[in-house]
Design goal:
Layout lengths: L1 H15 L7 E5 L6 E6 L4 E8 L3 H16 L8 E7 L2 E7 L9 H12 L12 E3 L2 E3 L7 H19 L5 H11 L13 E3 L8 E3 L5 E3 L5 E3 L2 H9 L5 H10 L6 H20 L2 H14 L4
Antiparallel strand pairs: 1-2, 2-3, 3-5, 4-5, 6-7, 8-11, 9-10
Helix pairs in contact: 3-7, 4-5, 4-8, 5-9, 6-8, 8-9
Length: 293
């Protein structure tokens, strides 16, 4: 580990243009996948995530996603310092931000609506990435329904079948895939820059209340996907949703579509963790199937 940190310090010095010598190291929370810690030299502090070398591509896509969000000039995100390999480990070094759990939730709602106004001509992204530890394909599509069918819901259903979740889940899933257009009658989503993994644990605030987003799974898609996930596991204050709707009201049918969008995440959790998530996915798929006329 000492060799690893020494090589990290050299990489940080090279990336910042100022030599960096590690004087303090503290363990930190870095999500469910990565080991994380902070490195300090008495003046500057950086946040580091590390994984085995074969997972470097995950950090490369995360760095690209953070850069995409930063370019939107909407919600604050940690700046990427550098990423690469050191002593046989993959690493991602980020600006250290002292995150607090509470702050200006209304401002976050306003800023997320601003971020969603950043659009692309199609749906998808310039590269594939990950949702948790699961690969997330992002091949460009001109049609949103086709994108959701092939790159999201169909992909997770395929993983679920491989993990032994068949039966009713696959039967209802196939019906949903064949009739996805039914959920978009009178609604044509625009392509919006999404965080992509917007659960409560991936946001926080600086001491002045400034909102911060991190750990993204970026792509261009229907803005409702971010909002739906924000409701899935909780963690967002009511002021957040009210402020977003104030800037950009939601369209009719969102109450049903949010279940369609969150089925993707529950399937992902079933594929990653099993347990009750598979049963929840079965219930959600049945609920959605009942909406098809």
């Amino acid at each position: 580990m000492n060799v690893f940190r020494t090589e990290l310090a050299v990489a940080i010095g090279r990336a910042t243009g100022t030599p960096f010598a590690v004087r303090r190291t503290h363990a930190a929370h870095g999500g469910d996948i990565s080991e994380a810690f902070t490195l300090g030299d008495g003046t500057r502090t950086f946040f580091v995530k590390t994984q085995p070398a074969p997972r470097l591509a995950m950090f490369e896509s995360e760095a690209a996603g953070l850069a995409e969000l930063e370019a939107a000039r909407a919600v604050r995100v940690p700046q990427v310092v550098c990423h690469g390999l050191a002593a046989g480990r993959a690493y991602l070094v980020l600006e250290y931000l002292p995150i607090e759990p509470h702050g200006d939730a209304a401002r976050l709602g306003h800023q997320l609506a601003q971020q969603h106004r950043v659009s692309a001509a199609r749906f998808g992204w310039s590269r594939d990435n990950w949702i948790g530890a699961t690969p997330q394909p992002n091949a460009w599509h001109d049609d949103w329904v086709d994108f959701w069918r092939t790159q999201r819901l169909g992909f997770q259903l395929g993983l679920a079948a491989g993990n032994g979740y068949g039966g009713t889940l696959q039967q209802d899933g196939e019906i949903l895939l064949a009739h996805l257009e039914a959920f978009f009658d009178g609604y044509t989503p625009v392509s919006s820059l999404l965080h992509g993994d917007l659960w409560g644990g991936n946001h926080g605030f600086l001491a002045a209340g400034t909102p911060v987003l991190f750990d993204p799974a970026v792509y261009f898609g229907d803005r409702e996907c971010d909002l739906a996930m924000g409701e899935l596991f909780g963690g967002f204050a009511p002021d957040f949703f009210a402020a977003y709707r104030e800037v950009w009201p939601l369209d009719a049918g969102y109450a049903v579509r949010k279940t369609l969008y969150n089925l993707y995440h529950i399937l992902n959790h079933a594929n990653l963790f099993g347990g009750g998530y598979a049963a929840q996915a079965v219930r959600m798929a049945a609920q959605l199937r009942a909406q098809i006329r």
